[in-house]
Amino acid sequence: MLETGTKPGRERRPILTVNNTYGMLRTVESGLGLAPLPDFVAAEQPTLVRVLPEVTGPPNEAYFVYPEELRSSKRISVFRDFLLRKVAESRLS
Hints:
Mean pLDDT: 86
Number of helices: 3
Oligomer: single chain
Low-confidence stretches: none
Number of domains: 2
Structural class: mainly alpha
Largest sheet: none
């Protein structure tokens, strides 16, 4: 992503590096720059403005992991169904 908008062979050097989503969100909200925030984070922040909409980042894989003995747990089933529904909704929008 550091190559976006630069001339070939020229490197853009960041002035700040943050290693978590919340830190990136707080940095952007403070007016310190741009960040590749996930859609689900940015959607809840009405003051943010999307720039470079044609640039997409790499996909993020997520795993729903739980102990095998909880396989038949109703709470696990309900939460799994909720997650799957939210993923499906986000793909439609």
